[in-house]
Specification:
92 residues, alpha+beta, 4-stranded mixed beta sheet, 2 helices
Length: 92
Protein backbone atom coordinates (compact mmCIF):
# COMPACT_ATOMS: atom_id res chain seq x y z
CA UNK A 1 0.00 0.00 0.00
CA UNK A 2 2.70 2.45 0.93
CA UNK A 3 4.52 1.97 -2.39
CA UNK A 4 1.28 3.09 -4.08
CA UNK A 5 1.24 6.27 -2.02
CA UNK A 6 -1.58 5.13 0.25
CA UNK A 7 -1.30 6.61 3.74
CA UNK A 8 -4.16 5.32 5.89
CA UNK A 9 -5.41 7.25 8.89
CA UNK A 10 -6.04 4.01 10.75
CA UNK A 11 -4.70 0.46 10.54
CA UNK A 12 -6.79 -2.36 12.01
CA UNK A 13 -4.77 -5.51 12.72
CA UNK A 14 -6.51 -8.86 12.82
CA UNK A 15 -3.62 -11.05 11.86
CA UNK A 16 -1.84 -14.26 12.77
CA UNK A 17 -0.57 -12.91 16.07
CA UNK A 18 3.02 -12.52 14.90
CA UNK A 19 5.21 -9.67 16.11
CA UNK A 20 6.05 -8.74 12.52
CA UNK A 21 2.40 -7.84 11.80
CA UNK A 22 2.45 -5.13 14.46
CA UNK A 23 5.95 -3.83 13.84
CA UNK A 24 5.41 -3.61 10.09
CA UNK A 25 2.17 -1.65 10.54
CA UNK A 26 3.97 0.69 12.93
CA UNK A 27 6.95 1.22 10.62
CA UNK A 28 5.11 1.40 7.30
CA UNK A 29 2.39 3.74 8.53
CA UNK A 30 3.95 5.96 11.22
CA UNK A 31 1.09 8.48 11.14
CA UNK A 32 -1.76 5.97 11.32
CA UNK A 33 -3.71 5.06 14.41
CA UNK A 34 -2.96 1.42 15.22
CA UNK A 35 -5.91 -0.62 16.43
CA UNK A 36 -6.95 -4.23 16.25
CA UNK A 37 -8.59 -7.34 17.52
CA UNK A 38 -7.69 -10.32 19.71
CA UNK A 39 -6.63 -8.31 22.77
CA UNK A 40 -8.35 -10.82 25.06
CA UNK A 41 -7.81 -13.87 22.84
CA UNK A 42 -5.68 -16.92 23.65
CA UNK A 43 -5.02 -16.52 27.36
CA UNK A 44 -2.09 -18.72 28.30
CA UNK A 45 -1.68 -20.80 31.43
CA UNK A 46 0.62 -18.12 32.88
CA UNK A 47 -2.14 -15.48 32.46
CA UNK A 48 -0.54 -13.67 29.50
CA UNK A 49 -2.03 -12.98 26.07
CA UNK A 50 -0.15 -13.50 22.78
CA UNK A 51 -0.46 -10.06 21.15
CA UNK A 52 -0.11 -7.78 24.16
CA UNK A 53 3.71 -7.65 24.14
CA UNK A 54 3.65 -6.65 20.45
CA UNK A 55 1.08 -3.91 21.04
CA UNK A 56 3.04 -2.72 24.08
CA UNK A 57 6.19 -2.52 21.94
CA UNK A 58 4.42 -0.35 19.36
CA UNK A 59 2.91 1.87 22.08
CA UNK A 60 6.31 2.36 23.69
CA UNK A 61 7.92 3.26 20.35
CA UNK A 62 5.17 5.82 19.74
CA UNK A 63 5.13 7.19 23.29
CA UNK A 64 1.48 6.18 23.35
CA UNK A 65 -1.13 4.71 25.64
CA UNK A 66 -3.13 1.54 25.03
CA UNK A 67 -6.86 1.50 25.58
CA UNK A 68 -8.74 -1.77 25.37
CA UNK A 69 -12.24 -3.11 25.80
CA UNK A 70 -13.13 -6.74 25.26
CA UNK A 71 -11.15 -8.01 22.31
CA UNK A 72 -10.39 -4.59 20.77
CA UNK A 73 -7.41 -2.31 21.45
CA UNK A 74 -6.22 1.06 20.18
CA UNK A 75 -2.78 2.67 20.51
CA UNK A 76 -3.47 6.31 21.37
CA UNK A 77 -0.88 8.98 20.70
CA UNK A 78 -1.40 12.50 22.09
CA UNK A 79 -1.16 13.99 18.58
CA UNK A 80 -4.25 12.08 17.46
CA UNK A 81 -6.45 13.93 19.94
CA UNK A 82 -8.51 10.88 20.86
CA UNK A 83 -10.18 10.66 24.25
CA UNK A 84 -11.19 7.48 25.99
CA UNK A 85 -12.52 6.78 29.44
CA UNK A 86 -9.73 5.97 31.84
CA UNK A 87 -11.41 2.70 32.79
CA UNK A 88 -10.29 1.40 29.37
CA UNK A 89 -6.65 2.40 29.85
CA UNK A 90 -4.34 -0.61 29.86
CA UNK A 91 -1.52 -0.65 32.35
CA UNK A 92 1.10 -3.37 31.87
Amino acid sequence: MRSLGVEPDIVFIDALKHREDYIEAHEQFPNAIITGDDWSWGKRKDGTYPIRPFVEEVAKARNATIYAAGATFVVVEPRHGLNFEEKYRYVA
